[in-house]
Amino acid sequence: MEFLDALETSVRTSTVPVLVSGDFNAHSSVWGSPREDRRGELLLDMLAANNLIVCNVGNSPPFVRGASGTHIDVTVASESLAPRVRNWRVFDEESLSLHRYIYFEIDDGGRRPRLQTMENSGWQIRKLSLQKLEDAVKSEDGGELVAKTPIAEDIDSFAKVLERIVDKCMPKRGRQSNRRPVHWWSEELAECRRICNSDRRKYQRKRRRSGDEQCIEEAQVYKAIRSKLTIAIKTVKEKCRIELCREV
User: Which CATH number fits domain 2-106: 3.40.1190.10, 3.40.30.10, 3.60.10.10, 2.60.120.10?
Assistant: First the structure.
């Protein structure tokens, strides 16, 4: 398999620990599949030859089509990294795909980056004032950036200067604990997704209890709201793309 050959080459030539997660379209009991196939055997051989460890945990299938689910999405890591992969699980949320969301954490051993992340606060970029930006840049003489200090301290200094500049030219965004990390997401989309998740669960519960023939109505309701959500997301993303092009 060309893909496995290419992946093995990348793993062997990597100078750092490797983590790979994706659809391998391979079956093996090692990652939860009830059956074995040739692709699974080849993947296992490659993993063993390169000291890669499977990180999948639990019985929830990452790939669901209709009434059946399969375990073809696999997460693997280098032998030195695998023990730090924690809380691997499959989310029971609507992904608008046959593949479910996979979540896991990587334990950093208690270390934390020196830089403070700004993503939790953020700024209202649409209210950017170009004049204030120009004035803010001119007001920074760059003295902090040319000092002969270790590179990490230079990076910290640059981040602080950049944050001061941004603070002067656009207002900060209000903190919202449930806010989606994409600028085009909205409460309307969130509500549509909540309804979609609810209808999907109702459909799945009745299908497990009564079979496909007895849940036709629930299936139609779920498919309709899922289609509505898909169209709504595509529409708002396209609208934002057009607005961004105009601003540029």
Answer: 3.60.10.10
